[in-house]
Amino acid sequence: MNWRERVELSGNQIMFVGIYPEMLNAIVGPYESLSASLSTPIAEKTAESGALAIEHHSGVNVDQTSGGSSLTIRGLEGTVSYDLGESLQIGAAGEPMSPVDVPAESRTEWTVEEDFIGAVRAARTGKSPEERPVRPDFAEGVQYTRKMEAVHQSATTGKAVEPARL
Q1: Quick one: which of 8, 92, 112, 126 is 20 to 30 A from 98 by CA?
Q2: pLDDT of residue 54
């Protein structure tokens, strides 16, 4: 197990559960309601845009050819599938998936941990938020935190939770 799969090191945001909302919120908007289960790590969520997201976070790969983490968004007009750090595919409704060649200038390196440490250090030096822009910003962070709290409340109570009400 790596540190992202250990609650004592990652808190409630284990297994990319906290990272997916950043991507999904940017694409389809924040969750309107969600239900979650800790015994079977499947959560069904509805975004404010009406999109339905079904997330499965297990942290288990059965073989070395399976991607570690992937995100698939299916809509009425087609599907987009992203194997984090590996490949991006898109398919129009009724058509096969095709790989997308992402231009080098549109690619970014994974710097989440580095960015977080940089933001903390900048805040400690007294820089204003405008002098230390961070993504996700505070408002986005509140959305992700609400989503994580909703996942854990739902898993504990067995009831659907509306993150915006938290």
Answers
A1: 112
A2: 64
Q: Averaged over 103-120, what is the pLDDT?
A: 82
Beta strands in the chain (DSSP E): 31-35, 42-47, 52-56, 70-75, 78-83, 87-92, 98-99
Tokens for 45?
Answer: 């969520």
The domain 3-68+104-165 is classified under which CATH number: 1.25.40, 3.30.1360, 3.40.630, 3.30.360? 3.30.360
Q: Spell out the domain ranges in the chain.
A: 3-68+104-165
Torsion angle, alpha carbons of 11, 15, 20, 21, to 10: -30
Q: Within a 10 A sphere around the Cβ of 64, how many other Cβ atoms?
A: 5
